[in-house]
């Protein structure tokens, strides 16, 4: 079933609002606003495919609505209405990005057709953007990487969040990429030209946390010889990322809740408050609902933060992304270290895919970075990876990866692992003596050397001392 076209109609005349509700009754979800201020409020919390707005209204006028739409959601089409049509107004509206212009009184059928054409233009733009992404083979959103169903769902949520100027709460285990997600939201939002300020709430000293966040007045405490702005003021017009929000002390939680409610901050030791225009993205690895029940996190603050929740899945829930992530990190660190390393030995890649990665993406990147640093050849071998990967690896990859493989490849992977484990046991038994190991195995010495090379093993690693 096709989703209805979301239309916002703005006019101070009730008969105009009712007219559009009538002529757009099928296939449209119509929201109305009787003045520009109400429209700006709706635009701040929701997204529309088409906005139809009168130009002249008490308070905020149609051009202010147009500016707000294009700042928050450039792909939304805007149709302007006026009973005082002039060529100048029409030209100005088009230059500012309006799709079309309706002169009152207008024919209802013509107005409905204009809205339909605007909606079709929005749809075609979205399809074109989606097609470009597919043709480019993009499996990432900003710096987040992955093509699994879990990550595609995350990308959709982050795109929606970026287009809405509202508070976002990112959840997920340590190392899942919450700061990358926050930066992606900022990068794709209307605030992208202003600052992104990242704050690790758990790293702020308890006695200085309020001063760091909100600033302080001169003489507010010992050592405050001058007034100082806080991180919220530094992020003015942009985005502040409050990482590990669950670590904030309860008194600071009270003040942060007021900042979110009133959109104003008060420096420590100052009697006057000042307005701030900052988009808040918070993150935590804790279960904040459980923290609320335990009395360690304020319930009112939780609900103010939990406006648009997004959970970043742990790597074990999207194991099929491991090869893509590993290749991404290999290219990144090989370039940074100026190493000519082109890929992974199949067994090394299998070991990466088999790990549960308790440290998630961060742990995977660290493993690949270390492997790039110590590798002796153009391909990363099993011996370049952390030793614990070999001992923790199971016979076959986890479910999602396994199901994506052809039957023959599954058999080959199982055979490869058994072969490698046999060689490790054999060389361990004979302490790296290839001649004796080959005799026990019943193969030529040269054949054993080829097998060792294939599995990234060196006889010297098994020799005592």
Write a structural description.
The protein has about 475 residues and is an alpha/beta fold. It contains 20 helices and 16 strands. The strands form five sheets. The protein has a five-stranded parallel β-sheet with strand order 2-1-3-4-5, with helices on both faces. A five-stranded parallel β-sheet has the order 9-10-13-8-14. Strands 6-7 form a two-stranded antiparallel ribbon. The longest helix is centred in the first third of the chain and has 28 residues, at about 110-135. The N and C termini lie far apart (about 70 Å).
Helix content: 40-55%
Mean pLDDT: 84
Query: Shape, please?
Result: globular
Number of domains: 3
Structural category is: alpha/beta
Instruction: Give the helix tally.
Output: 20
Strand order of the largest sheet: 2-1-3-4-5
What attributes does this structure have?
single chain; 465 residues; alpha/beta; Rossmann fold; Helicase, Ruva Protein, domain 3; 3 domains; five-stranded parallel sheet
Gist of the model:
With 465 residues, the protein is of the alpha/beta class. It has helices at 14-23, 36-45, 62-72, 87-95, 108-135, 149-163, 178-187, 209-214, 231-234, 250-262, 288-293, 299-305, 322-337, 346-354, 360-374, 387-392, 399-403, 407-429, 434-441, 445-454, and strands at 5-10, 28-33, 50-54, 77-82, 100-103, 140-141, 144-145, 168-171, 196-200, 239-243, 264-265, 274-275, 279-284, 308-311, 343-344, 379-380. It has a five-stranded parallel sheet, sandwiched between helices.
